[in-house]
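Re: that chain you flagged

S.,

Sorry for the slow reply, it's been a week of failed gels. I finally had a moment to sit down with the sequence you sent. For the record, here it is as I used it:
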Amino acid sequence: MINAGYRLAVKRYACAQVSSVNPIVLLHGWGANHRSWQPVIPALQNVAPVIAIDLPGFGDSEVIPEFNLDIVLALIAAEIPEKSVLIGWSLGGMLAVQLSECYPQKIAALITLAANTKFVAGRDYETAMPLAVNRRFNNSFAADALASLKLFTGLLAKGDHNERALLKQLRLLMEPEKINVNWQQALELLSQLDNRDAFANLPQPGLHLLAEKDALVPVAAAVPLTHLHSRQQVKIIPHAAHALHWSQPERVAGLIIDFIRSIDTSPLDKKHIAQSFSRAASTYDSVAELQRRVGQTLLHKIDLATEVDVVLDLGCGTGYFTPHLQHLFPQALVVGVDIAEGMLGFACTQASQLKNWVCADAELLPFPAGSVDLIYSNFALQWCNNLAQLFAELRRVLKPGGQLIFTTLGPETLYELKAAWRQVDSYVHVNQFHTSALLLDSLAQQDFSSIEFEHKPALMKFEQLSDLTRSLKSLGAQNVNRGRAAGLTGRKKIQAFRQAYERFRTNGCLPATYDVFYLKVKN
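Prediction finished late last night. Pasting the structure tokens below so you have them in one place:
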């Protein structure tokens, strides 16, 4: 193991404006450093804070004894904030794929530039640099590093429409005086890396840019990349060289920014969701009558005839149904999963006979592909941001023939509450949920073998409005939308809201409608 005292050089660029987008982390290619990102950093700063890292032994980072994959990944991971958008160029892109597999909790999205799944071709993968060419360069670098670096810089610019001017710019970036043992070791690692399995199982959304005129990575690699993982976006930059963010910086930055914005469109604030449910852990069960009733109905939809070895209670909350699942499948490994640490802590005390509890986001699960037989989820998936990402992730962890059984809430949930608030102001006061059409379409896009859907609205009744609002607070199901009002609501607005809600009173009670969807899905 490497000494914990080794640190990588990191350059941080503040965001030009207040932003809720996850931080962007940049990993450069072989022979370069963090300054190789100069052409696109100003544009990226407009949407998120940027962190540019020098790989071990490159730029301003210390030389390490061995440029070993596990060591390098651990050092980089130590510098990456949770839920980062990771962008890697060339070698940095190949390392980024490995990081996304080994440290999934760190990576919210992945972007690679001029990165193949294999840098060097083999008998089972020919769309890469020929082995003989790679060996010749590696041997020449060992014999004459300076001359080889000069040749390599030329390859970075080769094919660009203004090749000479680009070459001059790139030569200014190179630091031949800093060549050290890690450079040769990194070349050897690059020749050995095979990211095909890691790429095929990527749970994160991804964008992969290839250069049409690349002299190092064949543009034809776009075909196997797409075949390996159809949900990853692969785009070709016309007339661009291997250093495509220097060759076409505006186009590259624009595609990156569009992609980042496309994965950050959810109105839900995940951090606030986790905090809200954690605070409600001790009171949740006291007001969870509907949740228990619906969850019990959901249990009856499980196909008990199939063999089950691993079960996830996804969004297990206080763990009420986790022992029920263990009872149904006494020989199975049953794991309670929730995004709220407070809920899991409470579940541990309530179901002390169960030992397997995992804090994780349903959109980014820390489980291997094809490892789960049954996913049971009651009133949890409505808190997920991205349906495409969610169902791709759930399908990824399910075994062939595995079951996904869940309930979620539709857009008519608490419509009385929404209507009453609309009489008062224009803020978002009630959580917004997906339509059944969007839900079913998102499931259909993942090619599940079968999808069963049932719509059964449920009605709760309260004598006083304060009973309803107290119930929502005790459940932790408060307003978690980013468009919610900040600060306290004044007395006049509260009074107007109460009067508006009273119009729904029927037979002495105030109704609260829950738009419940039941779904049974088979992989």
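What I noticed first: Confidence is low (pLDDT under 50) at residues 480-488.

Talk soon,
D.
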